[in-house]
Design a protein that fits this description.
This protein is an alpha/beta fold and 326 residues long. It is built from 13 helices and ten strands. The protein is 38% helix and 17% strand. Helix 2 packs across helix 10, helix 4 runs parallel beside helix 5 and helix 11 packs across helix 12. It starts with 6 loop residues before the first helix and ends in a 26-residue tail after the last helix.
């Protein structure tokens, strides 16, 4: 059966995002930071940074910004390591790969996530009915992304390892096309790609990451930026929490903002936006331990070449992040 979702919708629009029509609400930060040069911010088509960009919140704080869009976390952190990005947000796995490769990055804040916004998808008529059925199958995911950890954890839950599947390493839009064409058997992916595919009647959710691979997303900064302008970095994180507070009070407008960026139908984006986590908190012992456990498992499986120490890359802010939970 031909898919009712066009390639354009699966690809989340190759052109630039539409300008936001929503006015930015009054901000609560008492003393806006001032940056001499634009902060280069890497973002994806989801999360809190989309709100900051679309509502022009940083302009209200007198922080000039250059926004750079990435299809996933790994290329964003490559740019950060190359000095082309100062600040960005990714899932759990990209900073592990980057740190293992020698990137001088810092974990500036964490976002505990439940895993509801990630899933392993199969075709409705697929013979794959359980995670154990993935053995020997072609499973697509983006190498070094949060989906990579999800796949490792999902396989481990049924006593399988990465070598027990045929790993097909694709960026999300390419994986979407492969999934639609039937050239892969399963696909591990996150929102909004998950929400788009979920609307397709030929798609079945094998499992979400909830209760299987709960983890964290992260806000990351280059060490050079954090050392040069800690106040601006702290103000950025405070602005994220203001945006998160706004998002909690305005779910319909949140979905509209996300739809402007992704180009997917508003009804689909409401599903993805409702599953998102938008607030940031300081890196605490629990978050650090969870991230270390992922890094250690990847080292043990030789997915990364050596063991790394997460704590040495954790930023210590000069004061508490505004709006962060105690």
């Amino acid at each position: 059966m031909t898919s009712r979702l066009s390639r354009r919708r699966f690809g989340l629009l190759a052109g630039p995002a539409l300008a936001s029509t929503l006015a930015a609400p009054t901000l609560l930060t008492p003393s806006p930071a001032r940056a001499a040069t634009p902060v280069r911010i890497g973002y994806q088509k989801n999360g809190s940074l989309v709100i900051l960009r679309q509502q022009r919140r940083l302009e209200a704080l007198n922080i000039p910004a250059q926004w750079i869009e990435f299809p996933s976390g790994p290329p964003m952190l490559e740019a950060l390591n190359a000095g082309a990005v100062d600040f960005g947000a990714t899932g759990d796995t990209p900073p592990i790969f980057a740190q293992a490769a020698g990137a001088d990055l810092l974990y500036a804040g964490g976002q505990p996530v439940s895993g509801r916004n990630s899933a392993i998808l199969v075709r409705k008529d697929s013979a794959i009915r359980s995670l154990g059925d993935l053995k020997g199958r072609r499973l697509a995911f983006t190498k070094g992304s949060s989906a990579h950890n999800f796949v490792v954890r999902a396989l481990a839950s049924v006593s399988l390892g990465p070598g027990d599947i045929q790993a097909v390493q694709l960026q999300p839009s390419d994986a979407a096309a492969a999934f639609r064409q039937g050239s892969i058997d399963a696909w591990a992916i996150w929102d909004p790609f998950f929400a788009i595919a979920q609307q397709e009647p030929e798609t079945r959710v094998l499992t979400t990451a909830e209760n299987l691979a709960p983890s964290n997303s992260f806000f990351l900064a280059s060490r050079a930026f954090a050392d040069r302008d800690a106040d601006t970095l702290l103000t950025l994180l405070g602005a994220v929490n203001e945006a998160a507070d706004w998002a909690a009070r305005n779910p319909d407008d949140l979905a509209r903002i996300m739809a402007e960026v992704t180009g997917v139908p508003l009804a689909v984006q409401r599903v993805a936006a409702a599953r998102g986590v938008y607030a940031v908190q300081a890196m605490d012992d629990t978050i650090i331990a969870q991230q270390q456990a992922i890094a250690d498992s990847f080292a043990a499986l030789r997915i990364i070449p050596r063991r790394i120490e997460i704590r040495v890359a954790v930023w210590t802010p000069p004061r508490q992040i505004a709006g962060a939970r105690p």
